[in-house]
């Protein structure tokens, strides 16, 4: 509904498997050489995401990788194979640590960084790696990489004119959803807040094309297309005080 199909499919959706394709024992634990808990926790989440791990374990990426130099998919493939084949031991994810400032140039070795920020940059770097060699692709075809099919979805923003009821829709891709949790008691309630209509008026008035003037309107975000794996980020820091919200 409302969205054109992608002209080009980069990764066949039927090849993505949500269940583990091989029986997996828990892989290696990750050592923390200093302020690396944000990085280790994100790597562990990605390592145990079956559709991503299945693909990386197959070794298929590296066989056909066109990249010279830095490639986040090659790095993740190497890490996941090593971690899942080292059951009962521990390791330092050196290849990832060495590429820290290629993953995000603002990350500094040895500094405490934000896990959500690191996840965002890592998934985006994997997405860029999947798009290497097809730079002038339309947005909708870009969302057919394996990474985007697993983690990406589409949000619809619908603005309804309160004078004439005309609707105006726009779509954007997302790789995760950030939820305000300060005033909510559960993830479900936070998701309900996320899709709650918001009134646009006063300084935030909306230009309605049917009325041809600035009008009060109602704006509502909804999830148009769900990803296979939905990533939720609970916003646990208060902007004003910088305090951590301790509810989990
Ligand atoms: Zn690669
Ligand atoms: Zn109107």
Automatic annotation (TrEMBL):
GO terms for cellular component: cytosol; nucleus. PROSITE patterns: USP_1, USP_3. Residues 28-248 form the USP domain. Keywords: Hydrolase. Coiled coil: none annotated. GO terms for molecular function: cysteine-type deubiquitinase activity. One of its GO terms (biological process) is protein deubiquitination. PANTHER family: UBIQUITIN CARBOXYL-TERMINAL HYDROLASE, UBIQUITIN CARBOXYL-TERMINAL HYDROLASE 42. This is UBP42 hydrolase. It comes from Psophia crepitans.
């Amino acid at each position: 509904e409302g969205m054109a199909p992608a002209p080009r499919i980069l990764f066949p959706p039927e090849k993505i498997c949500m269940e583990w394709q091989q029986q997996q024992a828990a892989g290696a634990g990750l050592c923390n050489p200093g302020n690396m808990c944000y990085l280790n926790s994100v790597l562990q989440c990605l390592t145990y995401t079956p559709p991503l791990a299945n693909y990386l374990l197959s070794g298929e990426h590296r066989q056909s990788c066109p990249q010279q130099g830095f490639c986040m998919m090659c790095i993740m493939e190497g890490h996941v194979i090593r971690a899942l084949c080292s059951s009962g031991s521990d390791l330092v994810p050196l290849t990832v640590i060495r590429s820290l400032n290629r993953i995000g140039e603002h990350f500094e070795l040895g500094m405490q960084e934000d896990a959500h920020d690191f996840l965002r940059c890592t998934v985006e770097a994997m997405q860029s790696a999947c798009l290497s060699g097809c730079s002038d692709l339309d947005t909708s075809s870009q969302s057919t990489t394996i990474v985007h099919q697993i983690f990406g979805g589409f949000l619809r923003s619908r603005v309804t004119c309160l004078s004439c009821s005309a609707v105006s829709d726009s779509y954007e891709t997302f790789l995760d959803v950030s939820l305000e949790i300060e005033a909510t008691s559960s993830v479900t309630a936070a998701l309900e807040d996320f899709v709650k209509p918001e009134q646009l008026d006063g300084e935030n008035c909306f230009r309605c094309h049917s009325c041809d003037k600035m009008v009060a309107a109602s704006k509502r975000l909804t999830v148009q297309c769900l990803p296979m794996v939905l990533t939720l980020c609970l916003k646990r820091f208060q902007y004003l005080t910088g305090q951590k919200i301790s509810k989990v």
